[in-house]
Amino acid sequence: MVSSLLSVRSLLFSIFMLMAGSGFLATLMSLRLEAAGTTQLLIGLIGTAYYAGLTLGALRAGRIIERVGHIRAFTAFVSLFSASTLACTVWQEFGFWAVLRFIEGLSLAGVFICIESWLNERATPQTRGAILAFYMVALYAGQGAGQFLLDLGNRVPALPFIAASILLSLAVIPIALTRIPGPALGGATPLSFVRLYRISPLGIIGAAVTGVMLGGFYALGAIYAHGLGMGRPQTALFMSLVILGGVVLQIPIGRLSDRFDRRKVIIGTFAGTGLVSLVLGLLARRPDIVDTLGLLFGGLVFTLYPLCVAHTNDFLEPDQRVGASGGLVLVYSIGAAIGPIIAAMAMTRIGPGGLFYFLALAAAAAVGFGVWRQRVREPVPNEQQQPYQILPRTTPIAATLDPNTAEEG
Hints:
There is one protein chain. This protein is an all-alpha fold. Helices cover 74% and strands 0% of the residues. Helix 11 (201-227) packs antiparallel against helix 12, helix 12 runs parallel beside helix 15 and helix 16 crosses helix 17 (354-376). The chain starts with a helix and ends in a 33-residue tail after the last helix.
């Protein structure tokens, strides 16, 4: 196992650097646009542009990789991302930045496909779980650490973008020098949304609602924190704690879902997320306890997507799981593209707390749908449930990393 992890250390280091350089850009751009007087709706559209690019890239970037190879494609995608990040310093205007964020989402999808297909090629049934766990640690740790680069722009406004570009450029070096061969892409053709709904209505609706919630939060969470009077360091800490919280409750909640009716755990987690969101909305004037609540919010909301994947897998044959997980990633991404627009409308009407009022309403809708599904469908027996697995919400290729699909490799 140790040798297998060492064989992918360059990939893990690259993804950490990439997430450190890119993970705080949404926060930074939101704060810059708000300071320039841009409306919250337009700021929300910036988030939508990013997730639209991520979704399109997840569907199309594989063709480029197959044509030119993994290393060349990876280098091209990161270079494009780095260039678009630097271009943000040229002109701060909503339309221009929206185009750049779309390009960044497109580029990052290509990066994820390269990394995840490499990791899948190096994984064995014995090491797949460990490699996936380290991949998730690199993703979350990089994204969380990167938030603290926000404060670099106090004296030189362009410095955070320059720092991001440097980190992105450095991430290319381990990949450019790697001797890991580029694997063939395949095995991750997503199931159609109609088929997914017929298999597991709660799984696909839950994934979509989770996307709406997290897309809205990532696009506008910094605006919420700033609206509470937080400065850049406090905003960076708040965003980082939410991301850190995404790691804390994954295993405890996952274990519960393996032992009991998974639908009850999904409903309970949505209900808990909605309750915490409601409190965050109501206490928009109490920034002294917002950090603690943010940690709890992250711990709950980040667990929802893998719960929905596990619930869907409970109804599938082994050879369907990769396709289903790939389809759920796309459903999540589409939801994430929609979420920022609606969240921005809520904040425009209500104020900073409107973000979390909207998230609470979305969670309540998912709870209602889940309760209805409990009444019309019998639960899967506990002994037939698939094991819960922490999963990234990146591209359909990520589905091949799930140890539960190891037999399809």
